[in-house]
Amino acid sequence: MSEISGIKRKRTEEGLRNAYNYSRSLLEASLDPLITISTDGKITDVNKATELATGIPRARLIGSNFPDYFTDPQKANDGYQRVFEAGFVRDYLLTIRHVAGSETDVLYNATVYRNDKGQIEGVFAAARDVTELKAAERRSNFTNALLKLFAQKTSLKEYLDSVLQVIQDWTSCQALGIRVVDADQRIPYGSFRGFSPDFLALEDNLSLANDRCICLRAIARKFEAQDFSILTAGGSFRCDNGPAFVSGMSAEKQADYRGHCIKFGFTSLTVIPISYLDRILGAIHLADSREAFFKPATVEFLESISPLIGEALQRFHAEEELAKYRGRLEELVQKRTVELEAANMQLQREITERKIADENLRYTAAELARSNQDLEQFAYVASHDLQEPLRAVSGYIQLLQQRYIDKLDEKALRYIAGAVDGAARMQRLITDLLAFSRMGAHERIGGSADLSAALASAMENLKVSIQEAKAKITSDALPRLPVDSTQIEQLFQNLIGNAVKFRGKHAPEIHIGANHRPGEWIFSVRDNGIGISPQYAERIFMIFQRLHTRRKYPGTGIGLAICKRIVEHHGGKIWVTSSPEKGSIFYFTIPD
Ligand code: ADP
Fold first, then answer.
1. How far is the CA of 449 from the centre of ligand 1 (A)?
2. Which end of the chain is more exposed for a tag (fewer CB within 10 A), N or C?
3. What is the C-alpha radius of gyration for the chain, rounded to an integer number of angstroms?
4. Which H/E stretch holds residue 45?
5. Atom 19 (ligand 1): residue with closest C-alpha?
6. Could you tell me the distance, in angstroms and rounded to a whole number, from the CA of residue 511 to the centre of ligand 1?
7. CB–CB of 192/168 below 8 Å?
8. What spacing in Å lies between the alpha carbon of 266 and ligand 1's midpoint?
9. What interhelical angle do 156-171 and 131-151 show, nearest 10?
């Protein structure tokens, strides 16, 4: 070897060393873990970032198996095998496990490298830390899953079960539950996973009012001094080592922790309150036997999504309330419907009864009208036809009186006088009966009449007896009304006639009164006569009913019956108030 060639070689070696150092420092400067792997899967080189990601020094990494440093060694093995087959992989997701337990999600990009002869010597792989990216993605998946559950119309139980599933998938903790505050201040688990029946027997029936434990204090937001060391900024409890935490305090303070979680082997514990608009509705309870299992970031994230669960709880509560009211409303409607149906049926029955009664009434009225008409006809015909023989009787008696007066003795003449008197009475009776039957109830009243004119006519007709009795008659102003003037004149005549006839020891004082009240006029004929015992107050309005002998007070007993007919014909009523010796007041009404 010449000197020149020796110098050349030296220079070349130096150049190579420089190039190596240069590229080496580039590799070491990279924040991404870089690694080379031999064809049999052994690590042949690593950079500083790989040492940091695994927590293992380079010397120990080189020569060890590549797949050993991942949470899923099989997947890591498959990955580098694929590089040999395809010549490269892009964005191949693996999770590097640090010796201390933490994990780093990475995306591998790898290619094979070859020697001068073109033979594959190994794989060069670069990992990009995507832990933050993955965490963000998982958080967003988690939130989306929760939102989806919220949107789905399920029962509270179904919702909480699904939420727990999502939380467990996310945290992969051993046991968890969601406590929901009920109306009695109890906090049973609305849903739970991984708690044993023995644990639940002790912990599922706690009351905010009576029990003392850290989960109750998280829900009620009332903390003890010793709680603050495990209290998060968001108001949750996060304890990495329960037994160590509790054993470090005095027995008196230990009483504030039920200690069941610890007894059942849970070392890591977390209680995250669930609230809605500042109202605490419950809590998420996470437990795991592994120490320091719940990372601050995990708890912080759960704190950030707990209002979503709170809102859902609130909605289920509201729906439950609404359903209760709806149920009550339906019950009321049902009850009212039944009542209404019963009332309807009753009404139907009443209508039917009423219809039958109406029918009967119509029938009776028709019958009555017919028999009334028959009676009127009969009374008219009878009284009319009776007049004929009566006239004959009186005629013959008069003949007897005139022609045989000197042939008859006194006794015979007395008999004849009796017969004349009887015939005269008969004549009066027939006249009255005729008048009664003429008060046809079927005639319609047309026009109107001045009642004071009717009263004046009646008094004119009674002029003689009024004068004889020295009767004093006064009257209120009388109205003009839709009445049959002849009938009203007859009415006044009968009432005033009676008032004069049935006078007492004093000269008659008679007053005709008139008062208007809603819908009708009420008239009165007041006298100071002999009066009537109240027991006869109704009987006197019936035909032929008299209270005295003919000799004492002449009359036929038809006058008041006629009055009653006239008043009723006008749609009114007639009655009397009286007592013996005190005079009488006859009232009658006439509708407007
Ligand atoms: P009459 O006057 O022909 O007897 P009414 O029908 O007019 O028949 O009267 C019936 C009975 O009522 C009379 O007989 C009388 O006993 C009683 N009466 C009627 N008006 C009066 C009156 N103003 N005072 C006392 N009694 C009366």
1. 27
2. N
3. 62
4. strand 43-46
5. 498
6. 17
7. no
8. 115
9. 170
